[in-house]
Amino acid sequence: MRKIRSKLLLAFLILVLLGNVAAFFVYWSSSKITSEYSKSFRSFLLLNDISTEAKTMYEKVNAFAIEKDQAFAKGYAESKQKMTSYDQALLKDAGLHAAIPSIEKYQYMMRTLINESDATMNHVKKGKIKEYAASVKEVRTVSSYIQEQTMTLLDDELSEYQVLYQSLQKRHQTYALFTLCLFTLSIGIALWMAYIIAGGISRPIVHLSRSAKEVSEGNFDGPNLHVSSKDEISVLNHAFERMRREMKVMIEEMKQKAALDQKIKDMKLKTLQNQMNPHFLFNTLNIVSRMAYLESADATSRLIQSVSTLMRYSLSPLSASVTLEQEVKVVKEYFHIQETRFSDRITCKTTIDESCLSVHIPSLTLQPLVENAFIHGVEPKEEGGLVELSIDRDDGFVMIRIRDNGLGISDQEKKRLLSQEEEDHSDTRSKGHSTGIGLRNVMSRLRLFYGVQDALQIDSKPNEGTTIQLTIPIKEERAC
Predict the structure, then answer these.
(1) Which pTM does this prediction carry?
(2) Which among 394, 416, 420 is positioned nearest to 460, based on CA atoms?
(3) What is the pLDDT of residues 346-362, one digit of tens each?
(4) Which of 158, 193, 228 is the last residue of a domain?
(5) Of 248, 327, 328, 453, which has the fewest beta carbons less than 10 angstroms from its beta carbon?
(6) What is the pLDDT of residue 323?
(7) Cα 7 from Cα 5, distance rounded (Å)
Protein backbone atom coordinates (compact mmCIF):
# COMPACT_ATOMS: atom_id res chain seq x y z
CA MET A 1 0.00 0.00 0.00
CA ARG A 2 1.33 3.39 -0.98
CA LYS A 3 0.97 5.72 1.96
CA ILE A 4 0.05 9.40 1.68
CA ARG A 5 3.21 10.22 3.60
CA SER A 6 5.35 8.51 0.94
CA LYS A 7 3.59 10.44 -1.83
CA LEU A 8 4.15 13.74 -0.07
CA LEU A 9 7.82 12.93 0.59
CA LEU A 10 8.36 12.00 -3.07
CA ALA A 11 6.71 15.22 -4.24
CA PHE A 12 8.81 17.22 -1.80
CA LEU A 13 12.03 15.57 -2.99
CA ILE A 14 11.17 16.29 -6.64
CA LEU A 15 10.46 19.95 -5.85
CA VAL A 16 13.70 20.24 -3.88
CA LEU A 17 15.62 18.65 -6.76
CA LEU A 18 14.10 21.04 -9.31
CA GLY A 19 14.84 23.99 -7.06
CA ASN A 20 18.45 22.89 -6.59
CA VAL A 21 18.92 22.41 -10.34
CA ALA A 22 17.59 25.91 -11.01
CA ALA A 23 19.71 27.40 -8.23
CA PHE A 24 22.84 25.58 -9.44
CA PHE A 25 22.33 26.81 -12.99
CA VAL A 26 21.89 30.40 -11.79
CA TYR A 27 25.04 30.07 -9.69
CA TRP A 28 27.03 28.51 -12.55
CA SER A 29 26.00 31.12 -15.13
CA SER A 30 26.67 33.96 -12.70
CA SER A 31 30.08 32.54 -11.79
CA LYS A 32 31.01 32.12 -15.44
CA ILE A 33 30.10 35.70 -16.38
CA THR A 34 31.79 37.06 -13.26
CA SER A 35 34.94 35.12 -14.12
CA GLU A 36 35.04 36.67 -17.62
CA TYR A 37 34.65 40.16 -16.18
CA SER A 38 37.32 39.56 -13.55
CA LYS A 39 39.83 38.36 -16.16
CA SER A 40 39.36 41.54 -18.20
CA PHE A 41 39.66 43.82 -15.20
CA ARG A 42 42.72 41.93 -13.97
CA SER A 43 44.41 42.65 -17.30
CA PHE A 44 43.59 46.37 -17.03
CA LEU A 45 44.91 46.55 -13.50
CA LEU A 46 48.11 44.69 -14.41
CA LEU A 47 48.96 47.06 -17.28
CA ASN A 48 48.26 50.07 -15.09
CA ASP A 49 50.50 48.69 -12.33
CA ILE A 50 53.34 48.09 -14.82
CA SER A 51 53.12 51.65 -16.14
CA THR A 52 53.12 53.09 -12.64
CA GLU A 53 56.00 50.90 -11.48
CA ALA A 54 58.11 51.79 -14.57
CA LYS A 55 57.81 55.46 -13.67
CA THR A 56 58.61 54.69 -10.02
CA MET A 57 61.69 52.68 -11.02
CA TYR A 58 63.07 55.57 -13.06
CA GLU A 59 62.47 57.99 -10.18
CA LYS A 60 64.31 55.72 -7.71
CA VAL A 61 67.29 55.25 -10.08
CA ASN A 62 67.54 58.96 -10.84
CA ALA A 63 67.26 59.90 -7.14
CA PHE A 64 69.99 57.42 -6.21
CA ALA A 65 72.26 58.78 -8.97
CA ILE A 66 71.86 62.32 -7.64
CA GLU A 67 71.84 61.86 -3.85
CA LYS A 68 73.61 58.50 -3.41
CA ASP A 69 71.14 57.67 -0.58
CA GLN A 70 70.79 53.96 0.24
CA ALA A 71 67.09 54.48 0.92
CA PHE A 72 66.61 55.03 -2.81
CA ALA A 73 68.65 51.90 -3.53
CA LYS A 74 66.36 49.95 -1.23
CA GLY A 75 63.31 51.50 -2.91
CA TYR A 76 64.72 50.56 -6.32
CA ALA A 77 65.18 46.94 -5.19
CA GLU A 78 61.54 46.76 -4.14
CA SER A 79 60.41 48.34 -7.40
CA LYS A 80 62.57 45.91 -9.39
CA GLN A 81 61.04 42.96 -7.51
CA LYS A 82 57.55 44.19 -8.34
CA MET A 83 58.44 44.72 -12.00
CA THR A 84 59.83 41.17 -12.19
CA SER A 85 56.63 39.75 -10.69
CA TYR A 86 54.56 41.81 -13.15
CA ASP A 87 56.63 40.36 -16.01
CA GLN A 88 55.86 36.82 -14.82
CA ALA A 89 52.16 37.64 -14.38
CA LEU A 90 52.04 39.13 -17.87
CA LEU A 91 53.66 36.00 -19.26
CA LYS A 92 51.14 33.82 -17.42
CA ASP A 93 48.13 35.83 -18.67
CA ALA A 94 49.43 36.38 -22.19
CA GLY A 95 46.51 34.39 -23.62
CA LEU A 96 44.07 36.96 -22.24
CA HIS A 97 45.37 39.80 -24.39
CA ALA A 98 44.32 40.75 -27.89
CA ALA A 99 47.76 41.29 -29.44
CA ILE A 100 50.32 38.77 -28.28
CA PRO A 101 53.19 40.25 -30.43
CA SER A 102 52.64 43.62 -28.79
CA ILE A 103 52.76 41.96 -25.40
CA GLU A 104 56.06 40.30 -26.24
CA LYS A 105 57.46 43.67 -27.28
CA TYR A 106 56.09 45.14 -24.06
CA GLN A 107 57.82 42.45 -22.01
CA TYR A 108 61.07 43.14 -23.83
CA MET A 109 60.81 46.82 -22.82
CA MET A 110 60.21 45.81 -19.19
CA ARG A 111 63.29 43.58 -19.14
CA THR A 112 65.34 46.29 -20.89
CA LEU A 113 64.24 48.76 -18.21
CA ILE A 114 65.35 46.35 -15.49
CA ASN A 115 68.72 45.73 -17.17
CA GLU A 116 69.42 49.43 -17.81
CA SER A 117 68.39 50.29 -14.28
CA ASP A 118 70.76 47.63 -12.88
CA ALA A 119 73.58 48.98 -15.05
CA THR A 120 72.93 52.56 -13.89
CA MET A 121 72.95 51.49 -10.24
CA ASN A 122 76.29 49.72 -10.76
CA HIS A 123 77.81 52.78 -12.50
CA VAL A 124 76.70 55.03 -9.68
CA LYS A 125 78.12 52.71 -7.04
CA LYS A 126 81.47 52.57 -8.92
CA GLY A 127 81.52 56.34 -9.49
CA LYS A 128 81.51 56.18 -13.30
CA ILE A 129 79.88 59.52 -13.92
CA LYS A 130 79.85 59.50 -17.73
CA GLU A 131 78.49 55.98 -17.91
CA TYR A 132 75.69 56.41 -15.35
CA ALA A 133 74.60 59.72 -16.90
CA ALA A 134 74.02 57.99 -20.22
CA SER A 135 72.37 55.04 -18.47
CA VAL A 136 69.96 57.29 -16.55
CA LYS A 137 68.95 58.88 -19.82
CA GLU A 138 68.34 55.42 -21.32
CA VAL A 139 66.27 54.38 -18.29
CA ARG A 140 64.10 57.47 -18.69
CA THR A 141 63.62 56.75 -22.40
CA VAL A 142 62.64 53.12 -21.82
CA SER A 143 60.27 54.15 -19.01
CA SER A 144 58.58 56.62 -21.34
CA TYR A 145 58.24 53.94 -24.03
CA ILE A 146 56.65 51.58 -21.51
CA GLN A 147 54.08 54.18 -20.50
CA GLU A 148 53.28 54.95 -24.15
CA GLN A 149 53.00 51.25 -24.96
CA THR A 150 50.78 50.80 -21.90
CA MET A 151 48.31 53.32 -23.29
CA THR A 152 48.36 51.53 -26.64
CA LEU A 153 47.72 48.16 -25.01
CA LEU A 154 44.94 49.62 -22.88
CA ASP A 155 43.28 50.93 -26.02
CA ASP A 156 43.54 47.48 -27.57
CA GLU A 157 42.19 45.88 -24.39
CA LEU A 158 39.28 48.30 -24.28
CA SER A 159 38.41 47.48 -27.88
CA GLU A 160 38.57 43.78 -27.09
CA TYR A 161 36.59 44.36 -23.88
CA GLN A 162 33.83 46.04 -25.87
CA VAL A 163 33.47 42.92 -27.98
CA LEU A 164 33.65 40.75 -24.85
CA TYR A 165 31.06 42.91 -23.11
CA GLN A 166 28.61 42.50 -25.98
CA SER A 167 29.23 38.76 -25.99
CA LEU A 168 28.71 38.54 -22.24
CA GLN A 169 25.52 40.57 -22.51
CA LYS A 170 24.11 38.16 -25.08
CA ARG A 171 25.20 35.21 -22.96
CA HIS A 172 23.64 36.80 -19.89
CA GLN A 173 20.35 37.28 -21.72
CA THR A 174 20.45 33.64 -22.83
CA TYR A 175 21.15 32.46 -19.27
CA ALA A 176 18.38 34.70 -17.91
CA LEU A 177 15.88 33.36 -20.44
CA PHE A 178 16.87 29.77 -19.70
CA THR A 179 16.65 30.41 -15.95
CA LEU A 180 13.19 31.94 -16.36
CA CYS A 181 12.06 28.92 -18.37
CA LEU A 182 13.53 26.58 -15.75
CA PHE A 183 11.76 28.38 -12.89
CA THR A 184 8.52 28.48 -14.87
CA LEU A 185 8.80 24.75 -15.54
CA SER A 186 9.53 24.09 -11.85
CA ILE A 187 6.51 26.12 -10.77
CA GLY A 188 4.34 24.37 -13.35
CA ILE A 189 5.47 20.94 -12.18
CA ALA A 190 4.96 21.96 -8.54
CA LEU A 191 1.42 23.20 -9.23
CA TRP A 192 0.61 20.07 -11.22
CA MET A 193 1.89 17.80 -8.45
CA ALA A 194 0.04 19.83 -5.82
CA TYR A 195 -3.18 19.54 -7.83
CA ILE A 196 -2.77 15.79 -8.32
CA ILE A 197 -1.87 15.05 -4.69
CA ALA A 198 -4.39 17.46 -3.17
CA GLY A 199 -7.12 16.19 -5.48
CA GLY A 200 -6.29 12.59 -4.65
CA ILE A 201 -6.69 13.39 -0.96
CA SER A 202 -9.44 16.02 -0.88
CA ARG A 203 -11.89 14.56 -3.42
CA PRO A 204 -12.37 11.21 -1.62
CA ILE A 205 -12.65 13.05 1.71
CA VAL A 206 -15.33 15.38 0.27
CA HIS A 207 -17.28 12.37 -1.00
CA LEU A 208 -16.80 10.64 2.34
CA SER A 209 -18.03 13.68 4.30
CA ARG A 210 -21.06 13.97 2.01
CA SER A 211 -21.91 10.31 2.60
CA ALA A 212 -21.34 10.73 6.35
CA LYS A 213 -23.78 13.65 6.36
CA GLU A 214 -26.36 11.48 4.57
CA VAL A 215 -25.87 8.76 7.17
CA SER A 216 -26.30 11.30 9.99
CA GLU A 217 -29.61 12.30 8.39
CA GLY A 218 -30.77 8.68 8.35
CA ASN A 219 -30.07 7.88 4.69
CA PHE A 220 -28.17 4.60 4.45
CA ASP A 221 -28.89 3.99 0.75
CA GLY A 222 -26.39 6.44 -0.76
CA PRO A 223 -24.07 5.47 -3.64
CA ASN A 224 -21.02 3.38 -2.89
CA LEU A 225 -17.70 5.20 -2.58
CA HIS A 226 -15.02 4.23 -5.10
CA VAL A 227 -11.37 5.18 -4.58
CA SER A 228 -8.75 4.20 -7.13
CA SER A 229 -5.75 4.92 -4.90
CA LYS A 230 -4.33 2.33 -2.53
CA ASP A 231 -3.58 4.43 0.53
CA GLU A 232 -5.09 5.41 3.89
CA ILE A 233 -8.01 7.15 2.15
CA SER A 234 -8.95 3.86 0.50
CA VAL A 235 -8.84 2.06 3.85
CA LEU A 236 -11.01 4.79 5.38
CA ASN A 237 -13.58 4.52 2.59
CA HIS A 238 -13.79 0.74 2.84
CA ALA A 239 -14.25 0.99 6.61
CA PHE A 240 -17.01 3.59 6.16
CA GLU A 241 -18.83 1.44 3.59
CA ARG A 242 -18.70 -1.54 5.94
CA MET A 243 -19.94 0.58 8.84
CA ARG A 244 -22.81 1.94 6.74
CA ARG A 245 -23.91 -1.56 5.71
CA GLU A 246 -23.77 -2.83 9.28
CA MET A 247 -25.64 0.20 10.59
CA LYS A 248 -28.34 -0.34 7.99
CA VAL A 249 -28.75 -3.95 9.15
CA MET A 250 -28.88 -2.82 12.77
CA ILE A 251 -31.52 -0.19 11.98
CA GLU A 252 -33.67 -2.82 10.31
CA GLU A 253 -33.34 -5.10 13.32
CA MET A 254 -34.25 -2.23 15.63
CA LYS A 255 -37.37 -1.50 13.58
CA GLN A 256 -38.41 -5.15 13.83
CA LYS A 257 -38.09 -5.02 17.62
CA ALA A 258 -39.82 -1.65 17.93
CA ALA A 259 -43.30 -3.17 18.23
CA LEU A 260 -42.25 -5.37 21.15
CA ASP A 261 -40.31 -2.59 22.85
CA GLN A 262 -43.23 -0.17 22.60
CA LYS A 263 -45.30 -2.17 25.07
CA ILE A 264 -42.39 -2.27 27.51
CA LYS A 265 -41.89 1.49 27.17
CA ASP A 266 -45.58 2.10 27.85
CA MET A 267 -45.37 0.03 31.00
CA LYS A 268 -42.25 1.89 32.15
CA LEU A 269 -43.95 5.21 31.51
CA LYS A 270 -46.94 4.22 33.62
CA THR A 271 -44.59 3.04 36.35
CA LEU A 272 -42.74 6.37 36.38
CA GLN A 273 -46.02 8.25 36.49
CA ASN A 274 -46.97 6.39 39.66
CA GLN A 275 -44.81 8.04 42.29
CA MET A 276 -44.52 5.35 44.93
CA ASN A 277 -44.10 6.16 48.58
CA PRO A 278 -40.41 5.49 49.49
CA HIS A 279 -41.35 3.65 52.70
CA PHE A 280 -43.69 1.39 50.71
CA LEU A 281 -40.79 0.72 48.31
CA PHE A 282 -38.42 -0.13 51.20
CA ASN A 283 -40.97 -2.48 52.74
CA THR A 284 -41.49 -4.11 49.36
CA LEU A 285 -37.73 -4.55 48.91
CA ASN A 286 -37.48 -6.13 52.35
CA ILE A 287 -40.28 -8.56 51.47
CA VAL A 288 -38.54 -9.44 48.18
CA SER A 289 -35.27 -9.93 50.07
CA ARG A 290 -36.90 -12.31 52.56
CA MET A 291 -38.57 -14.24 49.76
CA ALA A 292 -35.24 -14.58 47.96
CA TYR A 293 -33.64 -15.77 51.19
CA LEU A 294 -36.40 -18.33 51.75
CA GLU A 295 -35.96 -19.50 48.17
CA SER A 296 -32.20 -19.91 48.84
CA ALA A 297 -31.31 -17.08 46.44
CA ASP A 298 -28.72 -15.69 48.84
CA ALA A 299 -26.91 -13.52 46.29
CA THR A 300 -30.17 -11.93 45.17
CA SER A 301 -31.23 -11.35 48.77
CA ARG A 302 -27.88 -9.75 49.58
CA LEU A 303 -28.07 -7.46 46.56
CA ILE A 304 -31.62 -6.33 47.40
CA GLN A 305 -30.51 -5.55 50.95
CA SER A 306 -27.66 -3.40 49.58
CA VAL A 307 -30.03 -1.50 47.29
CA SER A 308 -32.52 -0.99 50.13
CA THR A 309 -29.80 0.29 52.47
CA LEU A 310 -28.47 2.68 49.84
CA MET A 311 -31.93 4.05 48.99
CA ARG A 312 -32.90 4.52 52.64
CA TYR A 313 -29.61 6.30 53.39
CA SER A 314 -30.00 8.59 50.36
CA LEU A 315 -33.19 10.04 51.89
CA SER A 316 -31.39 11.28 55.00
CA PRO A 317 -31.04 15.10 55.29
CA LEU A 318 -27.87 16.43 53.65
CA SER A 319 -27.29 18.74 56.61
CA ALA A 320 -27.17 15.84 59.07
CA SER A 321 -23.92 14.78 60.73
CA VAL A 322 -23.06 11.08 60.68
CA THR A 323 -20.06 9.02 61.70
CA LEU A 324 -17.49 7.72 59.28
CA GLU A 325 -18.60 4.23 60.27
CA GLN A 326 -22.06 4.89 58.80
CA GLU A 327 -20.57 6.39 55.63
CA VAL A 328 -18.17 3.46 55.18
CA LYS A 329 -21.03 1.00 55.62
CA VAL A 330 -22.99 2.67 52.81
CA VAL A 331 -19.89 2.73 50.58
CA LYS A 332 -19.37 -1.00 51.14
CA GLU A 333 -23.00 -1.64 50.17
CA TYR A 334 -22.45 0.43 47.03
CA PHE A 335 -19.25 -1.53 46.30
CA HIS A 336 -21.25 -4.75 46.56
CA ILE A 337 -23.82 -3.48 44.05
CA GLN A 338 -21.13 -2.43 41.57
CA GLU A 339 -19.10 -5.64 41.97
CA THR A 340 -22.27 -7.60 41.26
CA ARG A 341 -22.99 -5.41 38.25
CA PHE A 342 -19.53 -5.41 36.67
CA SER A 343 -18.26 -8.77 37.93
CA ASP A 344 -14.53 -9.10 37.09
CA ARG A 345 -14.29 -5.79 35.22
CA ILE A 346 -13.91 -3.71 38.38
CA THR A 347 -12.20 -4.35 41.73
CA CYS A 348 -13.18 -2.50 44.92
CA LYS A 349 -10.78 -2.21 47.88
CA THR A 350 -11.03 -0.63 51.33
CA THR A 351 -8.22 0.15 53.77
CA ILE A 352 -9.76 1.52 56.98
CA ASP A 353 -8.17 2.63 60.26
CA GLU A 354 -10.87 1.58 62.76
CA SER A 355 -9.88 4.35 65.18
CA CYS A 356 -11.13 6.95 62.68
CA LEU A 357 -14.68 5.63 62.35
CA SER A 358 -16.05 7.73 65.21
CA VAL A 359 -15.25 11.00 63.44
CA HIS A 360 -18.33 12.89 62.20
CA ILE A 361 -18.79 14.18 58.65
CA PRO A 362 -21.76 15.47 56.64
CA SER A 363 -24.24 12.83 55.49
CA LEU A 364 -23.77 11.48 51.95
CA THR A 365 -20.15 12.61 51.58
CA LEU A 366 -18.25 9.47 50.58
CA GLN A 367 -20.84 7.58 48.49
CA PRO A 368 -21.26 10.36 45.86
CA LEU A 369 -17.47 10.62 45.50
CA VAL A 370 -17.11 6.85 45.11
CA GLU A 371 -19.97 6.82 42.60
CA ASN A 372 -18.26 9.66 40.73
CA ALA A 373 -15.12 7.50 40.47
CA PHE A 374 -17.21 4.69 38.97
CA ILE A 375 -19.20 6.78 36.49
CA HIS A 376 -16.46 9.10 35.22
CA GLY A 377 -13.39 7.01 35.96
CA VAL A 378 -13.48 3.23 35.60
CA GLU A 379 -16.90 2.49 34.08
CA PRO A 380 -15.64 3.16 30.49
CA LYS A 381 -12.76 0.66 31.02
CA GLU A 382 -13.39 -2.81 29.64
CA GLU A 383 -11.21 -4.48 32.27
CA GLY A 384 -8.80 -3.80 35.10
CA GLY A 385 -10.85 -1.06 36.79
CA LEU A 386 -9.94 -0.29 40.41
CA VAL A 387 -11.68 1.92 43.00
CA GLU A 388 -10.07 2.12 46.44
CA LEU A 389 -11.22 3.80 49.67
CA SER A 390 -8.57 4.37 52.35
CA ILE A 391 -8.93 6.12 55.73
CA ASP A 392 -6.08 6.83 58.19
CA ARG A 393 -4.85 9.40 60.71
CA ASP A 394 -2.14 11.98 60.06
CA ASP A 395 -1.10 14.60 62.64
CA GLY A 396 -4.51 15.53 64.03
CA PHE A 397 -6.41 14.94 60.79
CA VAL A 398 -8.32 12.07 59.24
CA MET A 399 -7.12 11.53 55.67
CA ILE A 400 -9.76 10.00 53.39
CA ARG A 401 -8.63 9.03 49.88
CA ILE A 402 -10.81 7.76 47.05
CA ARG A 403 -8.58 6.56 44.22
CA ASP A 404 -9.38 5.11 40.80
CA ASN A 405 -7.25 4.11 37.81
CA GLY A 406 -9.72 5.43 35.27
CA LEU A 407 -9.68 8.11 32.59
CA GLY A 408 -8.62 11.01 34.83
CA ILE A 409 -9.53 14.65 34.29
CA SER A 410 -7.78 17.58 32.63
CA ASP A 411 -6.22 20.49 34.52
CA GLN A 412 -8.90 22.81 33.16
CA GLU A 413 -11.73 20.59 34.44
CA LYS A 414 -9.99 20.16 37.80
CA LYS A 415 -9.65 23.94 38.14
CA ARG A 416 -13.35 24.36 37.33
CA LEU A 417 -14.41 21.78 39.90
CA LEU A 418 -12.28 23.29 42.67
CA SER A 419 -13.40 26.87 41.97
CA GLN A 420 -15.88 28.47 44.35
CA GLU A 421 -18.01 29.99 41.59
CA GLU A 422 -21.61 28.82 41.46
CA GLU A 423 -22.88 26.82 38.52
CA ASP A 424 -25.24 28.50 36.05
CA HIS A 425 -28.25 26.46 37.19
CA SER A 426 -30.30 26.18 40.34
CA ASP A 427 -30.57 22.40 40.39
CA THR A 428 -27.76 21.10 42.58
CA ARG A 429 -28.43 17.45 41.80
CA SER A 430 -25.99 15.71 39.52
CA LYS A 431 -27.28 13.72 36.56
CA GLY A 432 -26.29 10.07 36.39
CA HIS A 433 -25.79 9.64 40.17
CA SER A 434 -28.07 7.40 42.19
CA THR A 435 -28.44 10.13 44.83
CA GLY A 436 -28.29 13.04 42.40
CA ILE A 437 -25.37 14.51 44.40
CA GLY A 438 -22.18 15.45 42.58
CA LEU A 439 -18.64 16.42 43.57
CA ARG A 440 -19.29 20.17 43.75
CA ASN A 441 -22.24 19.58 46.11
CA VAL A 442 -20.03 17.53 48.44
CA MET A 443 -17.28 20.14 48.32
CA SER A 444 -19.68 22.98 49.16
CA ARG A 445 -21.11 21.10 52.17
CA LEU A 446 -17.60 20.30 53.46
CA ARG A 447 -16.65 23.97 53.28
CA LEU A 448 -19.76 24.93 55.25
CA PHE A 449 -19.41 22.07 57.75
CA TYR A 450 -15.73 22.65 58.63
CA GLY A 451 -15.32 26.32 57.71
CA VAL A 452 -12.24 25.63 55.52
CA GLN A 453 -11.74 26.01 51.79
CA ASP A 454 -9.28 23.17 51.10
CA ALA A 455 -10.98 20.22 52.76
CA LEU A 456 -11.10 18.49 49.34
CA GLN A 457 -8.19 18.14 46.92
CA ILE A 458 -8.02 16.48 43.51
CA ASP A 459 -4.90 14.86 42.06
CA SER A 460 -5.46 13.61 38.52
CA LYS A 461 -3.81 13.22 35.14
CA PRO A 462 -5.56 12.21 31.91
CA ASN A 463 -5.51 8.40 31.41
CA GLU A 464 -3.67 7.89 34.73
CA GLY A 465 -6.57 7.94 37.18
CA THR A 466 -7.82 10.31 39.87
CA THR A 467 -7.32 10.59 43.63
CA ILE A 468 -9.75 12.68 45.70
CA GLN A 469 -8.46 13.45 49.20
CA LEU A 470 -10.54 14.73 52.11
CA THR A 471 -8.67 16.29 55.04
CA ILE A 472 -10.98 16.13 58.08
CA PRO A 473 -9.86 17.87 61.31
CA ILE A 474 -10.42 15.54 64.28
CA LYS A 475 -10.97 18.43 66.68
CA GLU A 476 -14.06 19.42 64.70
CA GLU A 477 -15.97 16.22 65.53
CA ARG A 478 -19.65 16.80 66.12
CA ALA A 479 -22.39 14.79 67.72
CA CYS A 480 -25.29 13.54 65.71
Answers:
(1) 0.41
(2) 416
(3) 899 999 999 999 999 98
(4) 193
(5) 453
(6) 92
(7) 5
